[in-house]
Amino acid sequence: MASRLYTWARWMVRHRRWVIATWILLLAVVGGLGATLHGKTSTEFTVPGVESQKAQDLLEERFPPAAGGVVRIVVAAPEGKTVTDPPQREALDGVLREAATVEGVVDVSRPASTGALSADGTIAYSDVRFTAEASEVPEAAKEELADAVEPLRDAGMRVELGGSAMLPQTEAGGPAELVGVVIAFLVLAVALGSLVAAGLPLLTALLGVAVGVLGTMFVSGFVEMTGTATVLALMIGLAVGIDYALFVISRHREQLADPGTDWEESIARATATAGGAVVFAGATVVIALAALAITGIPFLTIMGLAGAVTVLIAVLVAISLLPAVLGVFGERMRPRGGRKDKREDKREARAAGSWGLAWARTVTRAPAVVLLAGVLGLLALALPARDLRLGLPSYASQPEATTQHKSYDLLTEGFGPGFNATLITVVDTEHIPQEKREATVTRLRGELAADKDVAAVSPPVLNPSGGIAVMSVVPRSSPDAQATTDLVHRMRDLAPTVTATGGSLYVTGQTAMAIDVAGKLGDALPLFIAVIVVLALILLAIAFRSVLVPLKAALGFLLSVGASLGASVWVFQQGHLNGPLDVAAAGPVTSFLPVLLTGVLFGLAMDYEVFLVSRMREHYEHSKDPAEAIAQGVARSARVVVAAALIMVAVFGGFIFNDDPIVKSIGFALAFGVFIDAFVVRMTLVPAAMALLGRRAWSMPRWLGRLLPDVDIEGARLPAATPAGPTADADTAAAKDGSDDRTAVRV
Question: Is the pTM of this model over 0.90?
């Protein structure tokens, strides 16, 4: 692979103008398509085939009004007054009449006639039901409703909007995310020692991310996609794009520190070695994200594919656009030390890697102690994951300033915490004899009302044909409580009694859907982790021609995932650090976070594993001294690995302060996971484990070696380096005047 990338990079440098123009044209085309033909992203996380979705499909087919999206208008009377006082009642009646005129509205409930009034009369609500399902209710209609309720505020009443149709769109690109990018630039400037060199990874990464995200927006016009998919593509694409460019540029500048190295030769070698590690590491990220498809959950499959395509583009940018851009800068990328005499350059090179060398020798001095302490520490961080509960954020998790969160609080105050967890029972009575239908539904309602965790059950509402009966069940507990999950399971346990009469019972609603999605993802997680671990073993065995190195890497990856999940449970489920991280309320961990974290962190962990261990193996191939290979491998890669990890932590960490609770939890889990994996697992436990393994780390049974391809990501079979000479001077001149004369860039 290294030899092919070497030839490829030379071609990219010599045709740099065409390469750069092609990428700019691609950005323009994809950008135009994404900006003009994009679709609407969904706010719902649904799973075909689960019971709650079957019930929703049944309602859409045979009782459409019951399946429509709802905007719930929640009002609170001024202090000392009630909603039923004449001035407040008249204002509310006028607003509800206005709400009924909004396009798409089929029904507006009246609090006085539906019992939607708190016991003290201070809080009431009205459900404005649309013909369209929740995710399809137009933003214009919701804005019109928001304007229609203003007279209530003028009358001194509090008014907030909730309901299934008010799920906010997921957005990114705020100040916090920009701060992450600024921090990444500062890290690059320190790591590369040049503002120009620091700007290149950002420039190429932003171009790659723009192509990936705009392409994702274009695809959303043809495939249903959640807003989280676009944010994930942006988050991962930006992080890996910067890191991959950093790997190549740092290797290029390291080589240029030798005044005798020709800059074109250096670009080709950097692309062949560091670029080879980028290709291999990027391939693991792409495969891991694409493997989300094995969960069988459409929204997660689309999310994984969107991220995978963006990472693939980042890899292509790193091995095509980046060499071309480096060719434009030519000699100007050479560090100042490269213009000094060789002895001074060697002293500076040793100084640059001295702290990494010292760290490696400290870790390997007592490797067993370091390994034991590190493993025990990570297991301690993972302990909270034993209590992991999965779910989807309720409106309690939205920022406290949002109308959704305020409506949640008002409903809890007026009607109890379970009111926000209302469950919908759907009874298909079409095949029940006509004379037994009413008795069946009445008996079911009585059994539901008798449950200790049920606060209220509404009278049944029938569709026009009488074949569907719908009842609302209000739990005593909140949407995120374990008691509510248990109640849903008990309600479904009543299905056999209905089935015995010829009917069917379903439980649905937002809370039931969240429980079903969590259950489906929880069942898929063990298989997904097993696939990822096997994948890691195969890929790393190919990369390093070793059996023990992949086993060590896979175990380290599992420790990183466990620690990150434990920290996520500690923060988001158990409620620690809610203030500093601006978490509105504690609740279950986002249902798809463990699967997503496993896939993404696997790919990113392999980035650092490949880059770090490939430098060890590169030195081992020349010296056959395992101890020195560890020390020199860490010394030569420590600065880049640390910088790359800090960049990823900064980029992911910026998303922790996003208003969307799902994006917030993903950003935290990835930032924490990358930090632990890079600094504890790769920079500490890996050298310690390699020291204990010694020469055995690089051994492989002959029969297995014959089966696996030899990809040579270390560049052991590259031709000898071409020294700088008159040709290099001609190249420098060509770079300065921007010409692309191939005769001036020959080797």
Answer: no
DSSP class of residue 428 equals E
Helices (H), 260-297: 263-290
Q: Which helix (H) or strand (E) holds 426?
A: strand 423-428
- Contact between 50 and 516 under an 8 Å Cβ cutoff? The reply is yes
Nearest-CA neighbor of 285 among 301, 309, 303?
309
What pLDDT is attached to residue 324? 93
1-41+170-340+717-747 CATH pick, 1.10.260.40, 1.20.1260.10, 3.40.50.970, 1.20.1640.10: 1.20.1640.10
CATH class of 66-166: alpha beta
Interatomic CA distance for residues 609 and 559, integer angstroms: 14
Is it true that 66-166 and 353-399+524-701 share their CATH fold? Answer: no
CA proximity to 717, closest of 138, 81, 5: 5
**196/219 Cα distance (integer angstroms):** 35
Task: Classify 393 as helix, strand or coil.
Answer: coil
Q: At the top level of CATH, which class does the domain 423-508 belong to?
A: alpha beta
- Which residues lie closer than 8 Å to 383 by C-beta, 6 or more apart? 566
CA dihedral sign of residues 679, 683, 688, 690: positive
Asked if 571 and 387 count as a contact pair (C-beta separation under 8 A), the reply is no
User: What is the distance between the alpha carbons of residues 266 and 693, in angstroms, rounded to a whole number?
Assistant: 34
Element (H, E) at 345: helix 342-352
pLDDT in the model for residue 174? 62
**d(C-alpha 697, C-alpha 367), whole Å:** 14
20-23: Cβ within 8 A, 24+ apart: 20/321, 20/324, 20/325, 20/328, 23/207, 23/211, 23/317, 23/320, 23/321
- Residue 441: C-alpha distances to residues 270, 458, 461, 503, 579 (Å): 72, 12, 10, 10, 47
**Beta-bridge partner residues of 124:** 75, 117
Give the span between the Cα atoms of 587 and 571, in whole angstroms. 10
Tokens of 344: 């001074």
CA–CA distance, 217 with 230 (Å, rounded to integer) = 7
Q: Residue 342 has what pLDDT? A: 47
Phi, psi for residue 634 in degrees, rounded to 5? -70, -45
The amino acid present at 594, given as its one-letter code, is: P
Query: Which residues does the chain have with pLDDT short of 70?
Result: 1, 39, 41-45, 169-176, 337-353, 711-747
Tokens of 733: 């001149």
**Strand ranges (E), 116-201:** 123-130, 158-162
Q: Running DSSP on this structure, what letter comes out for residue 391?
A: E
What are the E-state strand segments in 36-168? 70-76, 105-108, 123-130, 158-162
Structural domain spans, the chain: 1-41+170-340+717-747, 66-166, 353-399+524-701, 423-508
pLDDT score, position 43 = 63
Question: 343 Cβ partners below 8 Å, 6+ apart?
Answer: none
Q: What is the CATH superfamily name and number for domain 353-399+524-701?
A: Multidrug efflux transporter AcrB transmembrane domain (1.20.1640.10)
| C-alpha pair distances (Å), 421 with each of 171, 415, 508, 573, 575 | 26, 11, 11, 18, 20
473: helix, coil or strand? Answer: strand
Output the pLDDT for position 19: 92
In DSSP terms, which residues pair with 129 in a beta bridge? 70, 107
Beta strands per DSSP E along 163-313: none
470: Cβ contacts below 8 Å, ≥ 6 apart? 59, 63, 66, 424, 425, 426, 427, 460, 461, 462, 463
- CA 376 – CA 116 distance, rounded (Å): 54
Q: Residue 545 pairs with which residues in a beta bridge?
A: none
Of the CA atoms within 13 Å of residue 716, those in its CB half-sphere come to: 17
Sequence letter at residue 119: A
CA–CA separation, 602 and 288 (whole Å):
7
d(CA 181, CA 650): 7
Beta strand 123-130 pairing with 105-108: antiparallel
Looking only at the bridges linking them, the beta strands covering 589-590 and 390-391 are parallel
